[in-house]
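Project standup — Tuesday

K.O.: blocked on the structure for the chain from last sprint. Re-posting the sequence here as requested.
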Amino acid sequence: MFSNYIKVAFRNLLRNKAFSVINILGLALGIASSLLIFLWIQDEVSIGTHYPNGASLYRIMEHEIADGRIVTDEDTPGILADELKKQFPEIEYAAGFSGPESHLLSVGSKSTKQKGHFVGADWLIMYSIPVLAGNATTALTTPNSVAISRKLAEIYFGTPQKAVGKTIRFDNYADHQITAVFENLPANSPEPYDFLRNWKQYLQRETWLMDWSNAGPGTRIQLRPDANPALLNAKLKTFLKGRNTDIGPTFNIELFLQPETEAYLYSDFKDGHRAGGRIEYVQLFSIVAVFLLLIASINFMNLATARSVNRGREVGVRKVVGAPRAALIAQFLGEAMFLTFLALVVALVLVSIILPAFNQLTGKELLLPFHDPAFGLVLAGILLVMGLLAGSYPALFLSSLNPINVLKGKLRFGSGALLFRRGLVVFQFVLSMLLIVGTLVIYRQLDYIQTKHLGYDRENLIRIQGEGEIAQKYTAFKQELLSMPGIQSVTHMQTDPLYNGNTTDGVHWIGKDPTSAIQFNNTWIGYDFTKTMKIKVLQGRDFSPSYGTDTTNYLINEAAAKRIGYKDPVGQPLTFGKQPGKIVGLIEDFHFNSLHVPIRPLIIRLAETWNYDNILIRTQPGQTQQALASLQAICAKMNPKYPFTYSFVDAEYNRLYQSETIVRTLAVFFAGLAIFIACLGLFGLAAFTAEQRTKEIGIRKVLGASISSIVTLLSSDFLKLVMVAILIAIPIAWYVCSNWLENFAYKIALSWWVFAAASLLAILIALLTVSFQSIKAALMNPVKSLRSE
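H.V.: unblocked you, prediction finished:
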């Protein structure tokens, strides 16, 4: 009997080639899309979880409570790690962690630029980083010690063993002794680096971090196995009181623990509470994967039902000769499993073909893990669930047919069956509408971000790092650069123009409440800052070498002026820390952080001779290549020991929203697939309807009905289903998109035309899908459809 079922399945597969191809393709696309999403999600949730001690690793976070708001970040005092380890026996290890730094590393005549961090001595032990040579416990305990990756050891010395004890020079002036070589970090590490330097050396360089009132680097800890994180959290809440002199009635800092395993996915906080992060994308695409599988399964059901008339006589004959219903159900489920297996094979081939492009898009290194037993279980689960889901309704429906009626040619479907099939189509188009609206909103928001005026002109703006001789001879560098072709203006800025994390509450003015601690962002700049950035000066002037007192004066933005309360701020006194001065200029608000956060009050100070920061060069429009050639020539002349590196500010800005851009692209891709698969289902239902109404159409044509009236008759039923789907989908889409847009401080409005355009597109897609079968049915010769009567 089993072999007979296999023969029947093959015959049906070959007899209905078009039907089989459409069915297998629909299932394969659904499975392939879900597998891609599964691989991406698996990689996302694995980031930051590969540490053996991961369950006991925590980041120290801060809630800054001031000025009526709570700001959460991981910037902490530089001396916090050592103090926590002394004060709390629950903490086994603790280490500070600086932001990434890029340095020129040299051994003999070989030099390369690499990125790394300053870290506490416990770092290698806490994160269980495999040490190939040297001692993990003592590697970072002495100043000028450095641990490097296997990659660097092989570049400079050939092997890890040969590297230990050797000297490597940083930035052509500071020699460091290599005390350890660690294994290259995994590709999915949240914070990649190739060298680690001693923490005490960092504090000696950044002496301001020795003050409890200042924060900048991160702090990581590892708890003892018997420690209670909740109890430690309660103790940490008030830890800085008595240490940070700025804490008072209107300003407070509360420390708390965030598990290392959650830090990557749950990075966003709002009003002191965890508000999401990349976990939102993981959840979103998990839902999309499930929807794609459902749509593909529904497509199978509709197509199988559409062909049920042709299988009716077969079922009738089998029942007459004694086949029980259970055997028929097993037969049709087996055929569904067989088709699903073929679709799974096609899906794996499609994923193998698509994966390189998918990796390039997402910036990952995903592979099909055939060696992993868990992946085999996933494939088996997909096969079983989709086979049962896709084949269940056709199996139950066909096995329930009355053999006498079927063999008499009286195959009819009840209202329940009709309602169920229409419900499936409505469900498919609800999902399609959600994806269409979501894609339109994501596209509009990303376009808004990428084209929004930031308060300065990011086009034709190049950034280079002030390093080596350029940092020491900035004035000469600027003068020579201004004489070269393609260069319009030059300035420099202490912070990255796209990110300013420097905050202080040490700003004072006339009329300020002495008990308040209001947070201001701050930065240092050089001359010609507003000219180079093309920031509008609303009142007063920019810093100028014509005014020798500008070293003690300030520029402020509109947000700062509003917060201070000066109606006419220019000329008014202002004190930053212990440095009194006056405001010489009011500049227009500009974005110096992500558009996810509002523009904050900003105080700008002059430091023309600052010896390390970001140098900004504005090029003449249309002369970028000449400007780059000029810049490279001067850098090679004045800073020959450093490789020439640069970046365009507009490209860096776009990278800030890389996650959203990837989501936008993936949304378009998966939305297109979902719509295509849904259309296959609609195509199946149209074919089924046309087949059921063949004689009716023949009679109408004999009585004089036109082709257009018949096409309208057949299409109107499907349009009603699409309209129902639109009415259901619009409020859901509005709710979901509104919540997503709340993550942006600056966002588009949800206009009515977005929903109208999505509705129109859904109707158009439905019409194009149905019209083929409708026209085919309308053109059929009525003689053929009525000859059996």
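K.O.: great, moving the ticket to review. The longest helix spans residues 325-362. Residues 425-452+650-789 form one domain.
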